[in-house]
Amino acid sequence: MANPALKAAFAAKQFVVAPGIFDMISAKVADGLGFECLYVTGFGTVASHLGVADAGIATYSDMVSRVGQMARGVATPVIADADTGYGGLLNVRHTVMGYEAAGVSGIQLEDQEMPKKCGHTPGRRVIPAEEMALKIQVAVEARQDPNFLIVARTDARTTLGLEEAIRRGKLYAEAGADIIFIESPESEAEMRAIGQAIDKPLLANMVEGGRTPILPAAKLAELGYAMAIYPAIGFLAAAAALEKAYAHLKAAGDSNAIGESYGFKRMTELMGFPEVWEFEKRWARE
Fold this sequence. Notes:
TIM Barrel, 48% helix, single chain
């Protein structure tokens, strides 16, 4: 079942900040920090699971099990990237039903052609807006729990311009989407125009090194946004830390003086070892 706390946060006009998670370590670390929502990033999940580009290679089967594992392993509500819904209308219905059964509280669907490309990268093309509106209608009909949120994303800004992206956002809102996601606006002025034009909760995608300026949460709220996701923050930080640690090991031949780390004791606690040890103590045979 979807966590009703997320829908309630939007209803209360509470600005929602959601870090990107991509595996169970990132999910558990983020879960303990008091966020209102966690965002399962397609880029990071595909990269950590398959080690390939987020370019439509991962399938529904690849993603739903990973998404479900993360959603079940945390207490915080989760919104998960589901690309294009992995096909046509029937695929969208199947995807929504599967993601909802997996335990997420919201699903993100986008209007790209298949195979999709990662947002903020070149070459993205979109399907007709009316075709995407049908996908949104199917998604709304397919969900079982009204607390399960439908996020509709359009990638039209980069190839077709801001005006078309806004038109699509409005159309997807009319089709029943709960949250509208205009991907990769290129200035604060464009973000303000989006906020003024669309009367639905808006999602801002804050990608380090991407096409959209990264703004503070307070500023995003002022511009009319209700939520910000940071899909890349976790895997970029993890990759940098790994590169530093591995490079030290290669150069020095040991793991001393690699700088501050999470700590083995903290990691055992994060992964639930104390509970395992307590169980073994209670059931140990003399």
